[in-house]
Automatic annotation (TrEMBL):
The gene is Mitd1. Residues 1-71 form the MIT domain. It comes from Oceanites oceanicus (Wilson's storm petrel). It holds the Pfam family MIT_C. This is MITD1 protein. It comes from the Eukaryota. InterPro entries: MIT_dom, MIT_dom_sf, MIT_domain_contain_protein1, MITD1_C, MITD1_C_sf, MITD1_N.
């Protein structure tokens, strides 16, 4: 298993998919270290240790390369979520970027609207996203939301729902600034530690649950997803609205 994992790491490395390659190198090294512990043949142990040393050196080089890309504002990672895939709750996508220094978040999404829409739970999705921010480990103090007005009769319910979220966040020491734009099209989320995440469907990439009592209604990790693409960037300076 260790040899196969390292082989995959090398393939990803050659393809310049460095972030995925680093994960495979780290997993492969851990597996090979277990093999070394279980091997009694000293010659084999010596060969394994040499290989492990080579892989560790390459993994360290990749770490430095990724860090330089971040510093240069050139980092880019892409995640493809397949149709009906599960295991892509907000924590899965965002948690690794929500470091303790994150105190300010920008959300641009034109469809943070009321749940009267047959296929959209976007207000609830935004609330769930806010709950994740409140739980930490980051220390978010301000969330900026830029969205568009709901059409027709749904506007008053949209505003009322957002104001309720705003008031609830105040109880946790978090300020929610809400702004509306009629021309917004892009969907992106930015943290003040330099991370930017663009999701093709915004926060609303989950499918409608079959019922209020179906698995996945409460736990987004178990909710089937629509097909979408997630692009992660690191920039030196996070632009403000």
């Amino acid at each position: 298993a260790g040899a196969e994992t390292v082989k995959r790491a090398v393939e990803l490395d050659v393809a310049s998919r460095f972030q995925e390659s680093l994960v495979c190198y780290q997993e492969g090294i851990d597996l090979l270290l277990q093999v070394v512990k279980a091997t009694k043949d000293e010659a084999k142990k010596h060969r394994y240790r040499q290989k492990i040393s080579e892989y560790m050196t390459r993994a360290e080089d990749i770490k430095k390369h990724i860090e330089k890309e971040k510093q240069d504002g050139k980092y880019h990672k892409q995640i493809r979520i397949e149709e009906n895939a599960i295991g892509y709750g907000y924590e899965k996508l965002f948690q690794e970027y929500l470091t303790e220094i994150v105190s300010e978040v920008w959300v641009e999404d034109p469809y943070i609207r009321h749940v009267h829409q047959a296929s959209s739970y976007s207000l609830y999705n935004f609330l769930r996203f806010c709950e994740m921010l409140v739980k930490g480990p980051c220390k978010v103090k301000t969330i900026h939301l830029l969205t568009s007005y709901d059409e027709g009769s749904g506007r008053s319910q949209q505003i009322s729902g957002l104001e309720e979220i705003q008031q609830s966040l105040r109880n946790y020491g978090v300020t929610l600034n809400i702004a509306f734009s009629s021309s917004i099209h892009d969907r992106e989320i930015r943290f003040n530690n330099g991370w930017m995440i663009k999701i093709g469907r915004g926060l609303d990439y989950f499918k409608k649950p079959q019922s209020r009592f179906s698995i996945g209604y409460c736990d987004f990790d178990l909710r089937p997803c629509h097909e979408t693409t997630v692009d992660v960037f690191h920039t030196k300076h996070t632009k403000k609205m």
